[in-house]
Amino acid sequence: MKVNIDIDENYEEDSITIKAKEWSEELEEIVKVIKKRKQPRLFGVESDQTVLLAPEEIDFIFAEHRKIFATVKDRQFEIKMKLYEVEDILIPHEFMRFSKSVIGNLNRIARFELSFNGNLCVYFHSGNREYISRKYVGPIKEKLIKGGQ
């Protein structure tokens, strides 16, 4: 991908033009990143205490029994948001869908193991593990090979 930046004090306001042959997921992510100036904060609740969560410390976010939880090392924090809302906030921080109910941090992955059913078992640096369903294996491998963004 080629990037051109033209800085001139005569411009009234910032403007971005993207020229592409066709629409892609990569372009969609770029637009999302550009549109988000100030990221909403992500708060987790544990034992009646609210904690500010840093995206780089989160291994994965998952949905269980109609609640959303963030896993940080050996702790789990409930997040009072919908999974898709959390995903929108975390995409610029190298998070991707692992399955219908899990969003994972690509920067925290230590290693993979292939399961017999085609799923991948992901091991995080913290020792946690989670599964990537077959549907999401290809896009995640592609993003990891490209080195993230």
UniProtKB/TrEMBL annotation:
GO molecular function: DNA binding; phosphorelay response regulator activity
InterPro entries: LytR-like, LytTR_DNA-bd_dom
Domain (HTH LytTR-type): residue spans on this chain: 43-146
Taxonomic superkingdom: Bacteria
Keyword entries, A-Z: Cytoplasm, DNA-binding, Transcription, Transcription regulation
PANTHER family found in the cross-reference section: HTH LYTTR-TYPE DOMAIN-CONTAINING PROTEIN, TRANSCRIPTIONAL REGULATOR-RELATED
Name of the molecule in the record: LytTR family transcriptional regulator
Natural source organism: Virgibacillus indicus
